[in-house]
Amino acid sequence: MTEIHLSDEDRDFIEEQVKAGIYKDVDEVVAAGLRLLGSKEGKLVELQRLIQEGIDDVEAGRVHHYASGEDLLNDIKRMSAERKHKTGTGH
Fold first, then answer.
1. Are 90 and 84 in contact (CB under 8 A)?
2. Which of 5, 3, 4, 25 is nearest to 14 (CA)?
C-alpha cells in the first residue's frame, strides 16, 4: 500500500471524522476526499470550456451590446419567460 504523509492538522481532522462516525475508517475519509477532488476538477474543466466558448463568441462577433444594465435585465427576463413558456414550467 502507498504510504502518505499528513500534517498533524490533517491527521486530526481525519480522526475526528472517523470518531464522529461520519466515516468508517481512514480509507473512507481519503476516498471521499479524492472523489470530491475529482468532482471539483471536472467542474473546473467545464468552467474553463465555458469561458473559452465565451471568448470564442466574442472574437467571432457573436455578442449583443446593451445601452444599459436595465436593458440587459429586461432581455434576461424576456428570455426566461420564453424558456418557461416553451418548457411549460411557468409558475
1. yes
2. 25
